[in-house]
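Consider a typical record:
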Amino acid sequence: MLRCVMGQSVSHFFSLRKKKQKDWAFPEELCPTQCFDQTLCIGSGGFGSVYKGRIKVYGDEDRKDVVAIKRFSRDSKQGVREFRAEVQLLCQLRHPNLISLIGFCQENGECIIVYDYMPNGSLFDYIFDTSSFKHKDPLPLTWKQRLKICIGLARSIHYLHAGVKHAVIHRDVKCSNVLLDQNLVPKLSDFGLSKMGPPTSSNALIRLNSNYAVLGTFGYVDPEYALSGQFTEKSHVFSFGVVLFEILSAKHSKEIPGIRMTLPADILDPSLMGTIAPDCLIKYLDIIQRCVRTTGALRPTMGEVEVELERAVELQERADAEKELSTTSTSLGGRNKKIGRFQKNYAVSLYVGGIGFGPVYKGRIKVDGDEDRKDVAIKRISRGSEQGMREFRAEVQLLCQLRHPNLISLIGFCQENGECMIVYDYMPNGELSDYLFDPSNIKNKDPFPLTWKQRLKICIGVACVIHYLHAGVKHAVIHRDVKCSNVLLDQNLVPKLSDFGLSKMGPPALSNALIKLNSRVSGTFGYLDPEYALSGQLTEKSDVFSFGMVLFEVLCAKSGSREIPECVERGETFPAMIDPFLVGKVAPDCLRKFMNIAERCVRPTGAERPTMGEVQVELECALELQERAVKIYSTILNYSKRIQKAL
């Protein structure tokens, strides 16, 4: 029998035979005696082979899904151990970049696991062995595709380290264990060697093998682990660094020792020549060098690696855009006469809002090398405002250094004749606060309330950018004014964090204590970290508190500074405060996860709050729980309709 694992614990399934629970019948077309032959084999390794098959979808007799079936060798005791280890782990893990478990079977000497089928095979095939692709001649992966695959893989490993109650040690991170779906989204697979570590709050995920047997794949094994038998989360970082090298060079991992003495031109995959921006390549090589350092203490965390890779993508995208538009970067202290012409042409009808110490107008500018005009937002600092001038310079200085897909983009600025202006990309969907509290502010359309999935994706985007500010730049940036009105939405509802006038540059991002003592407390009432308000000590955990308030507002569609406190004073329970539009639309597991994240973010002391990297991973897990629940509900609904039709 094939056990379905949706929403159940592994102990439940391993006891099914004793409890005589209802099982799925193993589909006839997957019967081992009929279908496990070499014509259907799509891969082999470890302690078994993988076959392609089709299974009927529960509740839909006409639909059959393509799946991958891993059959463990009958005579291998190690294979049985790996089977149980993999099933136990995959029943507990949910992440968009982890392979999904559909079901498993253990009877009559057969051990079988069924996964989602990955039509694009493994990353190894694309990098080293394109001849393994049947019925198609794939093009080499572009540099941008490779970077996105790296980021997805980094997110999955970061989730294993920080996004689950007990950290998971994979022990076999390599290109052949990275599978690619139809959209080239990476899925980390093969958890047979994995081990459950201590709670993720631990700073040292160390597991000592009793028999000192070093497990893994030659070329990817952390030398520190090989010598001592002690496996830490930094052992994964080493293996991931090797994968990064292979993706860049299309050379096997055994060539990694020469990277420190080799020029980039000598290690680049020939298909990538001339396509990688110099700044992006420098950043990428720096990540590799840090990941493969000899000792784990010198390597970055996977959260830091993820942020650095996102920075590399941003550098590449920026270089591509500059090449396409033939534009030049604006540096601090420069003058832009084209922007200056706007100062005599402001109209009330063009006013779109006010941020900090000045109004914001909508305008259009002509981009160099392009006849079309571009919509922009122009922030005009109030004349005579000393604080406004300080915020103007602080914002320009920061935005000239920061690049991230979820940060508002600086197009240019002007400081002359008493005028101070900053020009940004225009965000047609306005502020997140408009959608949550005041839809009447959204002009020229009648907006629908944001769906729960849209809200989750917005939260993940904002978490991602704050994590970048804390850990992805040389000197950490503390925003100090994270709130819904500072989250702008583009045409696709992608969030962009804005308004850096109050931001402060802290010590290096690798510091564990981003503390800055201020004589003056700044921020917005309702979002202000109480610890910062009392002591004047600003840390990265101050931004975490503010983000926690944003999470509550996103869930409740109520202002954290006014409406939520009023509800609490009236004695309302939290379920009663949830946005009525969302009632019945949020999966219970997802809601519990989301509530837990928000509650941890707003704890009284910074030491009790998670990092933004941990928050991002937890939110991605919440999204996965929501998507999985929707899929299950859809299947059940479809099945019910078929029963009603039959009756």
